[in-house]
Specification:
CATH topology of the largest domain: Farnesyl Diphosphate Synthase
Number of strands: 0
Radius of gyration: 20 Å
Strand content: under 5%
CATH class of the largest domain: Mainly Alpha
Order of helices and strands: HHHHHHHHHHHHHHHHH
Structural class: mainly alpha
Largest sheet: none
Shape: globular
CATH superfamily of the largest domain: Farnesyl Diphosphate Synthase
Distance between the termini: 48 Å
Number of domains: 2
Length: about 350
Amino acid sequence: MVVTPETRAAVAFARGIISRVSRTFAVGIALLPGDLGRAVLVGYLLCRIADTIEDDGTSTAARRQELLAMFLECFGDPAKAERFGGVASDIKADPSYLELMKGTRLVFELHRSLPRNSAAIVEKWTRELTLGMSEFVGSYPSGIRIQTMPEYRRYCYYVAGTVGHMLTDLWHCHSKLVTKRDYERLLPNCEAFGEGLQTINILKDIAWDIEHENAAYIPEDLLRARGSSHQTILHGDWRLQNREALVALVQLAKEDIHKSLDYFNAIPKAAVQIRLFCLLPILFAVATLREIERSTAMLQSGGAVKISRAEVRSLILAGSVSTISNKTTRWLVSKTSRQRFKLGLAKP
């Protein structure tokens, strides 16, 4: 990498903003070395910019589609990347996401500094993700309202399965430890790795998505089968029915987490940093899903489901020492799925 003042500014911005827009991936990204770490950092931030545009429930669908198209044009035109933050200044979002939007030019500057192969991988999958988001924004101009499970799976592929592909391609591109054979073993479960995390995020943030982003991702047909609907998903009188409607998505999340562990197990044990990057979000997701199964907070106005910072710290430490053992990792995941994990719980 040729280090210029612009590149140094881009690196400083990206490293500074990542922990403010992602609690789940920031720790893992910091573990990845050199060009691989920079490529994953850039890929995540680019996808987050597209996601911020999609999530703005105050903007019209036409405006969001326009901005998503302009965002993709930035890959081939540095001048457009330079201007994009100002052009998209009408987007409403959390202050940290708005700061990321303003720094779009710096993220694209960092993208241009990547080795050619990894830059191409990041662009390919960011395009796929962004075009899928634009499709759903256009299909639901009054706010996304997922209707069926097949449509839900399609949505999750675009916003998360693509990320699983991006990461897997980057592992193979940058790590000599991830051989072609390893890559072929990873591909069958790489979409589940992203989609399982996405489903759990959707489940924990049902109320937030409806009230702040005008989006309902729980399939309408699951709700209607229990006598409810998107209109009554946060209504207390339908809470029991709405909770029952989530069972299918909880089961889907569990299946995807199982495949995510198969994905993790397929990563060579010598690739410790990549394994830990993948393991941490799986552990956080399992802990969150455990709380979702015990709660109805996400079905109440203003409600959400979170795991404690203490458990997050415990899982980071436990995950760090169990990464090289698939057997110990599965024990840790199983333990976390049953009870809140605290250091000091000895393995039987």
